[in-house]
Known about the structure:
The structure holds two protein chains of two kinds.
Chain A: E1 2-7, H1 13-21, E2 38-44, E3 47-53, H2 65-76, E4 79-85, H3 89-100, E5 106-111, H4 113-118, E6 121-123, H5 125-132, E7 136-138, H6 150-156, H7 167-181, E8 182-184, H8 191-199, H9 204-249, H10 254-261, H11 277-306, H12 309-315, H13 317-321, H14 330-338, H15 340-345, H16 353-366, H17 370-380, H18 385-409, E9 418-421, H19 429-463, H20 466-481, H21 488-495, H22 499-506, H23 513-525, H24 530-567, H25 572-594, H26 601-607
Helix pairs in contact in A: 3-7, 9-11, 10-19, 11-17, 11-19, 16-18, 16-24, 17-22, 17-23, 18-23, 18-25, 21-22, 22-23, 23-24
Chain B: H1 7-21, E1 23-25, E2 35-40, E3 49-55, H2 59-67, E4 75-81, E5 88-92, E6 95-99, H3 101-104, E7 107-113
Antiparallel strand pairs in B: 1-2, 2-7, 3-4, 3-7, 4-5, 5-6
Amino acid sequence: MKILLVGNPNVGKSAIFSHLTGVSVTTSNYPGTTVQYTKGYLTYGGSKYEVIDVPGIYQLDPEAEAEKVATEMIKVGDVLVNVVDSTNLERNLNLTFQLMDYGKPMVLVLNMWDDAKHKGIEIDAGKLEELLKIPVITTNGLTGEGINVLPEKCINALPVRWLKLSASRRWETIGSIVAEVQNLSHRHHTFIERLQDLSIHPFFGPSAAIILLYIAFKLIITAGEFLTEYSTGLFEAVYTPFILWLSRLLDGHELAHSLFIGELSGGQIDYEGAMGVITTGVFVALGIVLPYIFLFYIVFGFLEDLGYLPRVAIILDRLLHKIGLHGYSVIPMLLACGCNVPGVLAIRNLETRRERFITAVITCTTIPCMAQTSLIVKTVGARGGIYVALTFATLLSVWAILGMFLKETVKGNTPTLLLEVPPYRVPNVKLQLKKLWMRIKCFLKEAIPYVLGGIFLINLLHVSGFIARLGKLFSPVVKGILGLPEETVAALIIGTVRKDAAIALLEPIGLNSMQMVTAAVVLTLYFPCVATFTVLLKELGVMDTARAVVIMLAATFAAGGGLNLIGHIYSPGAIIVTELVLVAIFSIVIPSVLRPKTVEGADEYFTQ
Amino acid sequence: MINVVGHLPVLDAFFFRNELKMTISFNAKGYKNMQKRRLQLVMMKNSQSGIVVAMNGGAGMRSRLEALGIRVGAEIQKKSALSGLGPVIVSVGNTEIAVGYGMASRIFVEVDEQ
Lengths: 608, 114
């Protein structure tokens, strides 16, 4: 028997799913967290039931990809568990009535029961059950209160018998039902509500967003530097003796030694330069990337559960319209700052092909994941902070110019923003820790094999002389256009597997500071890592992925070539200024050259 | 898919401009000095409330708005709006919803004005 959890976005279906099945899934406080359906099993009374967490929907008229998935799922379900946000009964019941048209057994779950009480909303659940003729239970998804009676209700639920209503009749019926069961008591504005109003204030909202995002970024970088320093010390104290012992053991086995341990400089290990699988490989993954991933997801998890992300979307809506997107695209992009894979998956929440394509391309091309960012900060940062600034300024310029270009060239339209803004909720510490652990576990499981395997592969290619030959072959491109030495080809190959390992490979090559920046930029832009590429292919299809790859390569040569060209002449600071000027120029040139002249000006007004 | 770029809505808004200026005096008991005025959602003042009277858009836009609770007859309050052509944030029932400028300019609200 299949039990489906269906409901509006951000009502807590995933939290209930976790409690029912014991399967951990990401929960957060913004609409559209779940984009794929998740399956789990519930054992009750000796039998096993399949439980499916369906992405949230407002209605059964699918437009967004996520809604399409949900509608298909409902058709195959045996029991529908309609999860409802008690603080929004009227709107949620609209979907309930549409679900009742399927005539399947149904259970209504009034979730966020506590929230409703705090907000002075009283609902007579017994009366609602009587009126709708389906079982109604009250729960609190965060704590799990009330969920224990759900399995029994599901199994005993009977098929719904209800007359199909027209849309207007539906709202009328809902109105009269709500009037009968719901009782509102007046209450004063709380502190959190004041904060909510302030964060969308025309002036304070954007200022607060800039300050908050700056603090978040600064916090991650500063604490990250501290943690990596600490982890380096730890590695030297604990891991070095083990490696030295292993090195003595492998004495005489040249090949194995250079593959796994790499070069030792006089009894000491340079973890970033040794290039062995268990020296540099392990150190990059655990010593550098892990601390940053840890910090990023602490900060991000907090903002996510607080409910700040939709507000960022609102504030950036205008800016993102300039590159053919609307505010909601900021959520995939912010997710991608952690890891590009969930970023690309989140494009399903966008409605049109055009939005999905632009967001996916921009995200995969210009946004480095946290693993990569941490290595950029570490290796490029060793040459001076201005070079890190130059790297990110270049990526940001490419982001803006590429976006403006895609806006004018990709067909289709970008609909207006329409987004439910969830109330702020104080993040639950236990849930936060659980989510953090889930994400770190995912990183350890997914990343480490690729980092170690990638370095192993590249060492093997090195030893066999294949890299040298490939370096010669691509020399005109790498050396000629990008101004990088032939050895960089090794990093470019590994970059298709793991970006962090690729940047780690740059260290022993001996690049000058400007080449370092160019290489870091090129490694970000040229191609997504294999994990991202796989989801990109799945989400966009073969043709659009091919287009995306062409765009990425073009961006790489433009940015890398440009840096190579003016890198010798200008100082890093001057280049940053040049890039900003270029963005400004392109923002005028691109629309005037590419925009079809015949379109009335009024249209622009309405698509904004 | 919603037709946001279609020609019809553009014309609609053009004709509605006259209606915007039109105010309906309302002389029921107790409302002697009150006037009902119809205006675009984007023209409302912050924290002003009103009743939605018309939504000028395709069926797609309508059903999307309705599913979120914004429908003709619903009470709506404008919470805030970002400057320029930025989105408008409204509250309907217990939900806050951000509506892009283009869509918000096609929602018409009747408000009381002294």
